[in-house]
Amino acid sequence: MRIFITGWKGQLGQALQQALCDECVAGCDLPEVDITDRTAITRAIAEFAPDAVIHAAAWTDVDGCARNPGRAFRVNVMGTRNVGHACSRINAAVVYISTNEVFDGSASEPYRESDPPQAINPYGQTKADGEWFLRRLLAEHYIVRTAWLYAPNGRNFPHRIVELADERGALRVVSDEVSNPTYAPDLAAALAALIHTGAYGVYHLVNEGYCSRYDFARAILRLSGREHVPVEPIALADFERASTPPPFAPLANTAAAALGIVLRPWEEALEEFVRQKTQPDE
Ligand SMILES: NC(=O)c1ccc[n+]([C@@H]2O[C@H](COP(=O)([O-])OP(=O)(O)OC[C@H]3O[C@@H](n4cnc5c(N)ncnc54)[C@H](OP(=O)(O)O)[C@@H]3O)[C@@H](O)[C@H]2O)c1
């Protein structure tokens, strides 16, 4: 298959390049190609003539999106619309990477693929709007929602926890924000399987199980040999930030599971991530 990846220097983009090494893959990212430049992204996609485009590029700074919703709209909504137009012109399928933040977090059970999006912050709203455009532009779409992504190459929650633990020696972490920590290489492998099914639709792809940010931080510290670092659980309401995260927004993988695509439990994936990070370079 010929597969084009937007955002291919990002956490997921790099994991996809590895997971799709048996396919014919190309991609783009900033600064070379800006998805808000319709001509540039249309040309980049058309020149490669892919069978499918995995659209992973986004402005993922959730607090930045809350401070500058205009920029969030340009990148996450108009940029996604541009990618959708480019795909429909050449009959390429699209795999759009969306987020658990399209939900409001008021549920008591993990969200299923059929639950209606109801975002409560600008990042979540722009990602939900991106879904809306792609549904209307292309019948051949996979909308794949994921959550709390981390990868060896990225700036993400596990990196930040370790950094803060070493800097401050003690942490305060919210215990009432809950979702699924998801290891980007596991998501990439699941996407590599999904893209061959032709079973278009909405999917929730996350590592199995869910936890609070507090539990996630404790697991990171334990696995990285920092169990002695004290962590105080705090409430979302006590943590001032620009964006309002959905409090309880884990995702349930029911659609991909029906196709036999399931990710391992988040604890196992985190263990592998930490082991790889702490291995001395050969
Ligand atoms: N990270 C998470 O926890 C999480 C959770 C759920 C869903 N997602 C979704 O998963 C996807 C991948 O996330 P990720 O963690 O891999 O994100 P990431 O590491 O931030 O990668 C996104 C890439 O997109 C690029 N980009 C930003 N604006 C662009 C533009 N205007 N034109 C072209 N490229 C642009 C970024 O470049 P710069 O770095 O130069 O800005 C970056 O290389 C995103 O669609 C995100 O919404 C992420």
Largest sheet: 6 strands, parallel
Low-confidence stretches: none
Query: Under the CATH scheme, which architecture of the domain at 2-151 and 181-207 and 249-264 would be assigned?
Result: 3-Layer(aba) Sandwich
CATH class of the domain at 2-151 and 181-207 and 249-264: Alpha Beta
SSE ordering? EHEHEHHEHEEHEEEHEEHEHH
Rough outline: globular
What small molecules does the structure contain? NADP nicotinamide-adenine-dinucleotide phosphate
CATH topology of the domain at 2-151 and 181-207 and 249-264: Rossmann fold
**Separation of the first and last Cα atoms:** 33 Å
Strand order of the largest sheet: 2-1-3-4-5-10
- Helix and strand composition category: alpha/beta
Helix content: 40-55%
What is the assigned CATH homologous superfamily of the domain at 2-151 and 181-207 and 249-264? NAD(P)-binding Rossmann-like Domain
Average pLDDT reading: 96
Work out the radius of gyration: 18 Å
Strand and helix map with partners:
Blueprint: E1 2-6, H1 11-19, E2 24-28, H2 38-48, E3 52-55, H3 62-67, H4 69-89, E4 93-99, H5 122-137, E5 141-146, E6 149-150, H6 157-168, E7 171-174, E8 178-179, E9 182-183, H7 184-194, E10 201-204, E11 211-212, H8 213-223, E12 231-234, H9 255-258, H10 266-278
Parallel strand pairs: 1-2, 1-3, 3-4, 4-5, 5-10, 6-9, 7-12
Antiparallel strand pairs: 8-11
Helix pairs in contact: 1-7, 2-4, 4-5, 6-8
The site of NADP nicotinamide-adenine-dinucleotide phosphate (NAP) has 26 residues, from helix 1, helix 4 and strand 4.
